[in-house]
Amino acid sequence: MALVTPLSAEHDLETKALAEFFNETLGFCPNSVLTMQRRPAISKAFINLNKAVMANEGRVTSALKRMIAWVSSNATGCRYCQAHAIRAAERYAAEQEQLDNIWEYRTHSAFSEAERVALDFSLAASQVPNAVNADIKARLYKHWDEGEIVEMLGVISLFGYLNRWNDSMGTSLEEAAVESAHQYLGKHGWERGKHG
């Protein structure tokens, strides 16, 4: 059961207009945003940050950004964000083999070395205490430039906020996100948990 009830999408028209971004990403406006709009400055700032973080200015693709988000959310245990990240990766045309084998990204042939280090970076940066070290830095610099590393850490940091928000709120999962999560994560025991 959610800590705070989401408001109608009509509650704040500026948030509603900005939230159209999520129609492409997820196919719906997330309940997390509908809850944030109880303080519209937060919902608007969040959506604008999300749009900036998810803009592609280098070689970090939209699909890879969503897989980075999934690894981060998996590390923190937020089932809501896991479901959203895998759904968005699917909608941004992540390879089917990657979606089916995201749990095995370190060893599965569907992932390149560049993708592996990006996902390892996400895992290390999402842990407490933080596990980013000289080895990860060296591996990152073999495949990515500094602007791309900033983009990746932007995703990880954005999802750090979302993981805390949605797990603390117990945000109710939307059915479309549940379907994607069951399809790609269910074989590893994914379930809604508190996000029912």
From TrEMBL:
PANTHER family named in the record: CARBOXYMUCONOLACTONE DECARBOXYLASE-LIKE DOMAIN-CONTAINING PROTEIN, SI:CH211-175M2.5
Top-level division of the source organism's lineage: Bacteria
UniProt cross-references to Gene3D superfamilies, sorted A to Z: AhpD-like (1.20.1290.10)
InterPro entries: AhpD-like (IPR029032), CMD-like (IPR003779)
GO terms of molecular function: peroxiredoxin activity
Coiled-coil boundaries: none
Identification of the protein by name: Carboxymuconolactone decarboxylase family protein
Pfam family, one: CMD
Domain Carboxymuconolactone decarboxylase-like residue range list: 40-120
